[in-house]
Amino acid sequence: MARGASGDATTTDDARPGPGAPARRGARAVAALTRWWRRFSPTGLAGAIVLFAAALGPSLMPRSPLYQGAIAGVCAALGYGLGTFVGWGGRRIGLRAPWPRARRTLVHRCCAGLALVVVVWALLVDADWQERSRALLGMGDPTPARPLLVLALAAALALLLVLAARGLRSAVLAVARLAGRLLPPVAARLVAVVVVAVVAYLVLDGTVVAGVKHVLTTTYAALDQETYPGDEPPTSSLRSGSPHSLAAWGTLGREGRRFVSGGPDVDELARFSQAAGLDREVREPVRVYAGLDAGDDLDAVARLVVDELDRTDAWGRSVLVVGTTTGTGWVDPPAAAAVELLWGGDTAFAAMQYSYLPSWVSFVGDRATPPAAGRALFEAVHARWSQLPQDDRPALYAFGISLGSYGSQGAFASLPDVAARTDGAVWAGTPGFTPLWRDLTDHRDPGSREILPVVDDGQRARWGDTSRTEDAATFLGDAPWERPRVAYLQHASDGVVWWSPDLLLAEPDWLREPRGADVLPDVDWFPVATFFRVGIDLFVAGEAPAGHGHTYVGEYADAWSAVAPPPGWTPAATTLLRGVLDDPHGTSVGTR
Questions:
Q1: Domain map (residue ranges) of the chain
Q2: How far apart are CA 88 and CA 83, in angstroms?
Q3: 115 vs 91, 128, 214, CA distance in Å?
Q4: What is the pTM of this model?
């Protein structure tokens, strides 16, 4: 350095960066990146590549790049952990490759090239099956940028999870060093693992989990207070939420308000009856509902529903349906409309809310409340119904879709119990952990498939999947069957039905059997990866077009026609009802 006349420091020519400085900085950056990269386990990276590729394999439903990238990232992180463990175990038993440095470098480069090939191949496979699956379901083409989006998200998420795991490992080592001053090495490591695990759990449960719960509760509680545009308080005394009702409009919750303000009116019922060739007098249907805040507990809410049935004289109708709602209190509009059109409005439909959180929250964290709510409502209605003269009371049916199907079946111990206490049931999109459904499916007749079981030759319960190629009018079978009847609706592409923790390590029957008509034939099972693939299918199944995934619409026509047919009903009327329900605008019956 030299001082100028002003005393400021100036830079000599020798001190200025030369033309090779950028190259040197680049070389240092590459060297630093190489050192950082070498900190990763080779066997761990191999495991990450394998599970990344497996995660991108075909599944039941097409999904967005966000979902696909997330599942691929999680699987890659798990694969890295498994591969690292395998490498550690191999080193512990002395499995090492005594190769010279040059050979090791060559092997590493060959493995890196192979990994690149596998990644590109997996992304191409993903793009191909997404395109074919979307074409099969009529959902349009995926975005051209999909492979890059999936890769970027998967890499970022996998790296984040691996670094988080490394942070926990460093914490374990630090605690082990401290404990090692007082304890033997093995005991110190054990104590360190326990301490770090407990602290991590407490931190996550007290911050992340608690924060998520708070956000979900606050968000969905606020949504429950809202009202869908166009929903107005009913004026008819036959509806809850009307001026005559014991259940005020403001207490019903958003989904309850939608339920009591919707459905076909008398004119629509009359037009349908005339078109179906049914000479009958139509009536305005009864719809009763109680919101979550209507009582201190589930039994109190259920008693209010029974009071509403008394108030509306619902016991004088021909048909009474006890519906168990999904997590938010939702009643599937086509399901209720199908019964009302079938019977010309000579019906009553009763439901209640037990939560305002979405079904997936209960699916993950609260499986006790839905069956408790299903039991509370059905037992309350059944007790009052049983007091009526046997020849002067409505036929009693049970209904539920998705988590509502799980909850509704919670009211019954077995299929004979359903037959003894109801006149039939329709259950759609039943989650695979539902005890009654699971028991029937596991004990199906030999030779029948898991996606379409046959139980006792279909004498009491039957399964229908209208994605099959058979005629829709016979999708529950055309052989005579006993009453009361139970109809299960499920699609081969519905992940809600087929997801199970067993998918982690065991191949299910439905993946050993021929695939359903709306599932690609190359959908297969791979340890760990299939569990996460179908897990993502849970979240996208409801986005499927009608007749696929977790979307049930026209199927209700076939199910209710078989389970609860009115006098004079014909197969032609079933076909007409299916067409009305499948109307994408739902203008004729108000089902949308």
A1: 235-491+554-581
A2: 9
A3: 23, 20, 42
A4: 0.85
